[in-house]
Amino acid sequence: MSRMTSRDQYLIDRRHALLGMGALAGVAAFGLAGCSDEEAPAPAGSSSASDDTSEESEGTQIDAAAYDELVASGPVADDAAVAASTWATKIKDAGTMRVGGVQTSMLFCLMNEKDNKVRGFDAGLFQMLANYILGDPDAYELTQVTSNTRESVLTNDQVDAVFATYSITDERKEIISFAGPYYTTQQGILVMADNSDINGVDDLAGKNVAAQSGSTGPSVLEEYAPDANIQEFATDEEARTALEQGRVDAYVIDATMQLGAMTRNPGKYRLAGEEFGPVDAYGIGLPHDSDGVAFVNDFLTTIEQDGTWSELWQVCIGDRADIAEAPEPPAIGA
C-alpha cells in the first residue's frame, strides 16, 4: 500500500473514532506561554517547570501506536526542495538532524522509559521534520536544553533546531531566527467539571478567581475581568487546591498548564470558554539568518494544510484532555 493510501486510511479511522467523543468548551490553540520553558526554570508569567511535567504513569497516557503511525505517515520533501536549502542540505549530508529539546514535558515531549522514545506535540513535529528531510522520523539526535541554553546551542552549532515551546520575542530574534509560529497560547479559565456557571471571561465578574503570584494572570485579570475578586497563590498546586476546596470559583493561568492539569486528572476539571488575553506564539529556533526558516515554514504549511498538524494535536493533547476538536493552527510567518 502506498504512503498516501495508508495515511488517508489512518485519518479516516481517527476521525471516525473522534465522532464518539464528548466535546468540552471550545479551546483555542494552547502552548506554554509565559511558561514556555517546561524543562528549565520558567520565566515570569508561569509557575515552576515541574507544574507541567509528569511521570509516564500519571494521568491519561498518549496513544503511542496512533502517535507512531501518524509520525511515520508524514510528508517527505522532494530532493529539489532539500537541495535548495543550505540548512536542510547540511542535515541531509549528515544523515541526522540535531535537535534541542526537553524530555519531561507531559504534553510536548516526554520520554517513555519503556521503549526509550520521546512523544508529544513538539516531539512529533521534530520527528516529522526529520522524516521530511531524511525519510526517517528516527533520524535525529536530541540534546536536552534549558531556558538558559536554547540560544547558545544554536549559536555554537550544537544543534540544527530547537523545539522547546519557545516563545518568539524581538530580543531573541537578535540572536537566533524562528520558523513558525507553530503554536499560540493565551490565558485559560479552569473550573471544576460540574461547574456550569462560568463559561467565559465575562462570567468571572463577582467570582472569586485564583491566579498565581508572579505570573501574568493577575494583571490580565485586572484588564479583562476587572470585577473579579482576585486571590493570588504562590504555586499552581495551591491555586488548584483552593479551586477543589471551593475557596475560589475559577483559576486563571496559561492554558497549557490548565490542559496539563486536565490530562493528569481526567474528568476533574474543564476549561470554561475560550482563551483570552495577550497571545504568546511559539516558534522553532534556528540559526540566525538561516535559510532554514523558509524551509521549515514550508514544512509547517504542508502539515497544516493536509491536516497532520490537527491530527498531531488531537493525539498528543485533545484525546488526553477530552477535547474533541483541534484548534485552528496559527498563521505561519505571523
Mean pLDDT across the residues is: 85
Structurally, the number of domains stands at 2
Helical fraction equals: 25-40%
Q: Mind summarizing the main beta sheet?
A: 9 strands, mixed
**Total beta-strand segments:** 12
CATH topology type of the largest domain: D-Maltodextrin-Binding Protein, domain 2
Verbal overview:
- The protein is built from twelve helices and twelve strands.
- The chain is of the alpha/beta class.
- Mean pLDDT is 85; it is low at 1-57.
- It has two domains: 3-13 and 22-184 and 279-321, D-Maltodextrin-Binding Protein, domain 2 (3-Layer(aba) Sandwich); 185-278, Periplasmic binding protein-like II (D-Maltodextrin-Binding Protein, domain 2, 3-Layer(aba) Sandwich).
- The strands form two sheets. Strands 1, 5, 6, 7, 8, 9, 10, 11 and 12 form a nine-stranded mixed sheet that branches.
- Helix content is 35%, strand content 21%.
- The chain is elongated.
Summary tags:
about 325 residues; alpha/beta; D-Maltodextrin-Binding Protein, domain 2; 2 domains; nine-stranded mixed beta sheet; 12 helices; 12 strands; about 35% helix; elongated; disordered N terminus
